[in-house]
Amino acid sequence: MADDPHGFPFASRRGLLLAGAGLGLTACLGGCGRRDEATPTTPAPDAAPAGPPEGSLEWAVAGAWRNKDKDRDAARHPMETLRFFGLQPAMTVVEFWPGGGWYTEIIAPYLAKGGGRYFAATFARGPAADPAQAALNAAFQARFTSDRDLYGEIQFTQFGAGTGAVAPPGTADLCLFIRTLHAWMAAGIAEKAFADAFVALRPGGVLGIVQHRLEPEEDQDPVAANGYVQEAFVRQLAEEAGFQFVAGSEINANEADTKDHPFGVDTLPPVRLTAPAGQPADPEFDRTPYDAIGESDRMTLKFRKPE
Question: pTM here?
């Protein structure tokens, strides 16, 4: 950036100032002491730039309450992804396993302002619940019930092997599976996720999926231990549940992802494992090439429940 905001070199600026002083003296000989009352003495200050309209999707993505999570926007493209899925402010939306609430903090305020409803189908609860998942559930609920003016009245349901409906049948406009399908494959509940979403959606409702993408020539591990899933396999699961494929997008693609990482997809940001899951971190592990890749290559798929 130039030192002078107008771009003038210092010497030229000095010359202009001297010239201006001379002109001012000449003018003063004929007119000093008189004031043109029609001429404003002080220009009006520039108006502050307006932010996105309150209640818009742009407003929700830009919200100050998201400041600690915005650094992931460049890799996750929330605005483009949610627009691709067709999110509208008055919709009823079900997000399966929202985790820490990365998408919740965008969708819930947007729906709260627009008269929509947000259902969080969290991890299964109860005495047999996994302790780590129970802790995530507790943190999620505490966070998103702390400011009802912002997040609205979130509806808490659950999804797991023995759970019931994630929302009243036939009422949802949009169901979301965001980077969760591999975990359901490992738990043996992937088919149930598609079935539960199909029941929850109204006819014409949309299922939106973002998932780490395995290359089509690779063999699909039935439990997706490395976190990657073939697009053809996802489409097969959706179609077997009754969904129609609508479109795919490369919004969340990453050609730099080689998908051969020592600890699976969680070697990459944001998890950044340096040792197998559950083991102590390895301080000698060189993270440089994996951090350079960034987040994973992801498919972004849109399905519809038939009318």
Answer: 0.84
